[in-house]
UniProtKB/TrEMBL annotation:
Residues 10-64 form the HTH lacI-type domain. One of its GO terms (molecular function) is DNA-binding transcription factor activity. Keywords: DNA-binding, Transcription, Transcription regulation. Gene3D superfamilies: 3.40.50.2300, lambda repressor-like DNA-binding domains. Pfam families: LacI, Peripla_BP_1. This is Unannotated protein. InterPro entries: HTH_LacI, Lambda_DNA-bd_dom_sf, Peripla_BP/Lac1_sug-bd_dom, Peripla_BP_I.
Length: 339
């Protein structure tokens, strides 16, 4: 018996032929036009069911008067990262409520991947883009904006490109975390974070330094580490500071993956209950370990709601001046930061 697994998808022309109607009539039925003769609509629907025909929604949307496809593109650092995945889910729910679909991609801190994804999404006729930016220069987006594309940046601002932006209070949150450790008697506080080329990492390190400076504590470069890509280097750093003669009494880790490495190192050296730890970004297991992990977290739902509102308003035609919105972080004490 010959398999039909490679059979081409049924077309609107085949539906028209089977139903004895025209392509235009099939199109009107598929688009829900109420003035189509009921008998013709019934014949078209029966033919569509028999052929298992699915209309090309993108093509249909492109024929709309407003030209919209009711889709938005979401460009994230890494969808597997808990922060990115939480953002993704929040945007999906918010978009659905507006009648929009979301397509998303990961950029992995690669500028060329950012421009590649933006071009891909625009070619798919998305109505707007929400971007966690990676590129150091976004002037190239001016051409797309002049063509009607709408942009909102989240987590980090764009460079050389003015657009609505939603960020967390990164510096303030990091300063709060470090001051919390200082108030618990710590003066030798190690810092672990991502590359200083990344906006959020730079802001959080600035908050750490501001807290030390305010408390008149000298900044010691020997207990500071930037970068998360080289796990061997990160492991070597944690081992050196935890086994040295002048080890820190506390650690501020300014990114979720870095916090995981800090927890791993403290556990390895049996110091989880001796060296305090405050992290930045949420961890799903933060309250399941002993001691629980004290964390500064971003209000992801509020950030997503703000960014979505801005983008959908732009898509609907609002032309107000671009603004920067800072969403306050949340500090949750669970034990590790209170040693």
């Amino acid at each position: 018996m010959k398999s039909d697994s490679n059979r081409a998808r049924p077309t609107i022309r085949e539906v028209a032929a089977l139903s004895g109607t025209s392509i235009k009539t099939v199109s009107r039925v598929m688009n829900g036009v109420s003035t189509v003769d009921p008998a013709l609509a019934k014949a078209v629907n029966q033919a569509a069911r028999k052929l298992n025909y699915r209309p090309n929604l993108t093509a249909g949307n492109l024929r709309r008067v407003d030209g919209r496809t009711n889709t938005i593109g979401l460009l994230l650092k890494d969808i597997s990262n808990p922060f990115s995945s939480a953002l993704h889910r929040a945007f999906e729910d918010l978009a659905r409520a507006e009648g929009f679909d979301v397509i998303a991609g990961s950029m992995d801190e690669m500028p060329e991947r950012e421009s590649e994804l933006i071009n891909t999404f625009i070619s798919r006729r998305v109505d707007g883009l929400i971007i966690v930016p990676t590129t150091s220069d976004h002037k190239y987006l001016e051409k797309e904006r002049k063509s009607g594309m709408q942009f909102v940046f989240i987590d980090r601002p764009a460079n050389n490109f003015v657009a609505d932006t939603v960020v967390a209070t990164n510096k303030k949150g990091a300063q709060e975390a470090t001051e919390h450790l200082i108030h618990h008697g710590h003066t030798r506080i190690a810092y672990m974070g991502d590359s200083q080329e990344i906006y959020t990492a730079s802001e959080r390190f600035a908050g750490y330094k501001a807290a030390l400076t305010k408390a008149k504590i000298k900044i010691d470069q020997s207990i500071i580490h930037h970068g998360v890509k080289d796990l061997k280097a990160l492991d070597a750093f944690t081992s050196s500071i935890l086994t040295g003669s002048n080890r820190p009494t506390a650690i501020f880790s300014s990114q979720n993956f870095v916090t995981i490495e800090a927890i791993r190192a403290l556990t390895k050296h049996n110091l989880s209950k001796k060296i305090a730890l405050v992290g930045f970004d949420d961890l799903p297991f933060a309250d399941l370990v002993n001691p629980g992990i004290s964390l500064i977290t971003q209000d992801i739902q509020k950030m997503a709601e703000t960014a979505s509102r801005l983008l959908f308003n732009r898509i609907k035609g609002e032309t107000q001046k671009a603004e920067l919105y800072e969403i306050p972080t949340i500090f949750t004490q669970r034990g590790s930061g209170e040693l």
